[in-house]
């Protein structure tokens, strides 16, 4: 009888342990699954491939704009910038996941329940329900295995929130252009004039007639992991193509005619923010490529897409 009672107590004890464990697992993982970002720890060998220290852009005189470009890039003129540091790469999924895990931040696309995608089947820009930074192609997609891809489906507000958390800021469009162009007075792209490589070997861009066919000569149909292509002269990656990048500047068509000569920030107000660098959707079939160092894109700040990301700048030594 005592042995039976002991066995019953043992079974009861094991049952209680299982019940408590099950409840703990449910409370941890069974609620609000989509609200918690996936674990995106990047293997050490991946991190070692790209130096993550921001690049120092020296103070001095820089050329901005293009007298042969669209109206909003004219007139080309010189400005003076104080030194600043700019991230070598666009902010990645792993970097953004660290921010979300630390703060519980929810992006505009997550709150809305949709984001804007270029649909390769219909060849149109469409509203994709369930698309957000964790589910870039809709609710059935994932960023697992894409830790080093640039984060997308982030609005200007999302990018700005990350930058503040990181102790940095979004670059002004003029800082961005100076970093892409360098102090050279020639050249339309962020690679050397004497480069022997073709465009598809230098950046993730659209090859072929947009939007009918992407030949994918660069081996990517969509976004690519950061630093998949050669760095600029300064050592900065993906300043042309891959994802368009948010800046802190308001868009105004006449910005270049009105800005000051020292550390300009752009217009003081506006309905849209400037994006720079073009994206994987950029082509030059119209004679003007969005991937040039002087091209000015623009989006409303609440907009999120599968072709827009960002990088950050700082004045001081990097904090993280």
TrEMBL record:
This is Serine/threonine-protein kinase pkn1. It comes from Bremerella volcania. It comes from the Bacteria. Its EC number is 2.7.11.1. Gene3D superfamilies: paralog of FGE (formylglycine-generating enzyme). The gene is pkn1_5. One of its GO terms (molecular function) is formylglycine-generating oxidase activity. Residues 53-313 form the Sulfatase-modifying factor enzyme-like domain. Pfam families: FGE-sulfatase (PF03781). InterPro entries: CTDL_fold, Sulfatase_Mod_Factor_Kinase, SUMF_dom, SUMF_sf. Keywords: Kinase, Transferase.
